[in-house]
């Protein structure tokens, strides 16, 4: 088990990679015209005071906070999987104990597969939900907006994660020592957080556009308040 100091370092590293992913996502979004800038003032349309164009520092801070908060949870989850599905050491003399070595390999392969299956069927759905809800809360969204975000964003992110994470976790659970598993996930997560940042930017922009459309179609006296 890591010490509090090691967990703090782990959390800072996780937060830094999450924030970096947000920065990269915003950079590519701005280059491809997918940044949150739609030709209207979102503070009037949505009641928020964040900039709608350029670099969103608050979004980077949100990703950093999420990464810091989630790192200890992820580490303890890996500790649980390690204890629940242990991987045995191979026989020291494989030539003399060939059958035993093959048995160990078979047991280890099953343990790694079980870890991956449990991780992807239990932790991945919960982690995806925590991200969507957590980012909505950090953005100050109303309950109805977070519910809508869950309905639209959650399935997309979960399915996208199943393209990347099963293979990454097979490598992680089979080759990476426990103490380095969260950092390994964070390195892979740099690409994942870039995708999450892009997806969050797109979702936020679409919400602002819907709100602006609603205000535009309302009574002019109301829309100009």
TrEMBL record:
Keywords, alphabetical: Membrane, Transmembrane, Transmembrane helix
Chief location of this protein within or outside the cell: membrane
Transmembrane stretches, start-end: 152-172
Pfam families in the record: Mpv17_PMP22
Topology term for the membrane: Multi-pass membrane protein
Compartments, record wording: Membrane
Gene Ontology CC terms: membrane; mitochondrion
Family the entry assigns: Belongs to the peroxisomal membrane protein PXMP2/4 family.
Name of this chain's protein: Protein SYM1
Organism taxonomic ancestry: Eukaryota, Fungi, Fungi incertae sedis, Zoopagomycota, Kickxellomycotina
């Amino acid at each position: 088990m890591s010490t509090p100091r090691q967990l703090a370092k782990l959390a800072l590293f996780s937060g830094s990679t999450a924030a970096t992913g947000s920065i990269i996502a915003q950079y590519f979004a701005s280059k491809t015209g997918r940044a949150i800038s739609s030709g209207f003032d979102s503070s009037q349309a949505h009641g928020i005071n964040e900039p709608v164009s350029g670099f969103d520092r608050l979004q980077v801070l949100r990703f950093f906070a999420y990464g810091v908060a989630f790192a200890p949870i992820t580490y303890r989850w890996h500790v649980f999987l390690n204890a629940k599905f242990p991987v045995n050491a191979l026989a020291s003399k494989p030539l003399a104990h060939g059958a035993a070595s093959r048995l160990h390999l078979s047991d280890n392969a099953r343990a790694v597969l079980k870890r991956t299956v449990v991780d992807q069927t239990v932790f991945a759905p919960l982690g995806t939900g925590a991200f969507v809800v957590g980012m909505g809360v950090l953005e100050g969204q109303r309950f109805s907006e977070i519910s809508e975000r869950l309905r639209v964003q959650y399935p997309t992110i979960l399915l996208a994660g199943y393209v990347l994470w099963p293979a990454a976790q097979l490598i992680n659970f089979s080759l990476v020592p426990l103490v380095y598993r969260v950092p390994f996930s964070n390195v892979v997560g740099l690409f994942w957080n870039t995708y999450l940042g892009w997806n969050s930017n797109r979702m936020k922009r679409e919400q602002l556009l819907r709100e602006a459309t609603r205000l535009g179609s309302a009574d002019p006296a109301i829309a100009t308040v």
